[in-house]
Amino acid sequence: MGSLRRPSLFVPALMCALAVFAARATEADGTSGDDPGAGTGAGDMSVSAQVARLYEDAALATRQYEAGRQQAQVQRARAQRAEELLDRERREIAVLHEDLGRIARAQYRDGGGLPMAAQIVLASSTDELMRGQHVFSQVNLAVGNALDKSRRAEARLAADRTKAATAWRTLERRSTELAAVKNTIQSRLDEVRGQLQGQADVSVAAGACRGAVRLDQPRTQVTGAWVTPVETYELSAGFGSGGARWANRHTGQDFAVPIGTPVRAAGAGRVVKVSCGGAFGIEIVLEHPGGYYTQYAHLASVAVDQGERVTAGQWIGQSGTSGNSTGPHLHFEVRVTPELGSSLDPVPWLAARGVPVG
Length: 358
Hints:
Elements: H1 10-29, H2 42-112, H3 116-122, H4 126-206, E1 234-235, E2 253-256, E3 262-264, E4 269-276, E5 282-288, E6 292-302, E7 309-310, E8 315-319, E9 330-335, E10 343-344, H5 346-351
Antiparallel strand pairs: 1-2, 2-9, 3-8, 4-5, 4-7, 5-6, 6-8, 6-9, 9-10
Helix pairs in contact: 1-2, 1-4, 2-4
């Protein structure tokens, strides 16, 4: 019976993750003295950069926590499996003990309990005597070997159970610690998201954008010519749907995402409009080859300037809930002109370019 696999290197990885996240959360907390209503400058960049970094940290911490939780479940299942196998081995040993006792009792009744001299006298022949002794010896040897094998298996399973249970308890403890760090990051992220949205509201009320806030671009490289405007999302209001917030029909596709979510350029192009104020709040419009335009509205910040060229997947801003918005989301449109009123349904438009949305 083979041993269970040894615990993986996931525990050291969790410990490293805990140290990194704790340090980064502390660092972010130490730079939180920006006034949401402050003017353009370092304060803007600091809050936006904190949101972007904490957004990534929260996502990574969540993935690490889920991986740790799953690994702990695997180790717990291994410990339970070892316990079941151990119980089975003990039951088999008990059965073997019973068998050996039954054989011994039968042998005694059949003469096995007589002294050797008496067996010799009573045996009808030498062959009968030797056969009886041989059968008993073979059975006794087989049972003894089986008992030894089962005892070794029991010892091995007991060691495996101990290892698996120890690994499970360690992983559960690390997962609990990582969950606490994740919650700390999330709490800090919620705080700076509020600051970021406060800055956006000030800009929209003034009708003047605060200028581009440059963000560190994502490490992952986009391979396609087109992408979804946000990486992780839930679809909300769709193109053409009705609602009290719109004079006619909804002119784009809404992506429900938290404040501060990085917004990506759907494709390569040029920034033809950056504005703050009105129903769309803070918005960006890009011009793409082929005569199409994409709009990104209700933002909390912008990371590009008008006239700038962008690539597919480049972070151009952060989502928010500015303008005529009832909650955090990105309003995304595809148009044939830069202006409102020329929109197409973005979902089939993106699907035709190899980008399924759903």
